[in-house]
Amino acid sequence: TGRSKTQRDRIKNLLELIRTMQEEYEEGAPHEEVLERANSELNMDEKTVNDQLDKLKMKGDIYEPRGDVYRAT
Predict the structure, then answer these.
(1) For residue 20, what are the domain limits?
(2) Is the model's pLDDT at 19 over the cut of 70?
(3) Per-residue b/e over 8-31, b at no fewer than 16 CB within 10 Å?
(4) Into how many domains does the chain fold?
(5) What global pTM score does this model have?
(6) What is the pLDDT, as a whole number, of residue 7?
(7) Which residues contact 14 (CB under 8 A, 6 or more apart)?
(8) Which residues are 30's β-sheet partners?
C-alpha cells in the first residue's frame, strides 16, 4: 500500500482511539483531546497526529461533523 507497518499501525490505533472517544463525547472526538490522548496513550507527537488525521479524512475513515471534532465512518 506504500505505507510502512509503523504508519499502518499508527493510523489503525488513531482510528480506534477516535472510535472509543466518540462513545464518550456525544458530538465526536474533540481535536485537542485526540491530540492529548494520542500523545499519552499512543506516544504520537502533534505533527504526527495531525498528519494521520489528514490521511484518515482523505481515505474517508473519519469526518468532521463540525470544526475540530472527529467521528469515524
Answers:
(1) 5-72
(2) yes
(3) eebbebbbebbeebbeeeeebbeb
(4) 1
(5) 0.89
(6) 85
(7) 34, 38, 42, 44, 49, 52, 53, 56
(8) 69
Q: What is the CATH number of the domain that holds 46?
A: 1.10.10.10
CB 25 within 8 A of CB 37: no
Burial 32-62 (b: 16+ CB within 10 A, else e): ebbbebbeeebebeeebbeebbebbeeeebb
Q: How far apart are the first and last CA of the chain?
A: 21
- Record the cell numbers describing residue 69, joined without a space: 471534532
Please give the pLDDT value at position 3.
Answer: 75
Looking at residue 1, what is its pLDDT? 54
- Are 14 and 42 in contact by the 8 Å Cβ rule? The answer is yes
Are 29 and 21 in contact by the 8 Å Cβ rule? The answer is yes
pLDDT tens figures, 20-60: 999 999 899 999 999 999 999 999 999 999 999 999 999 99
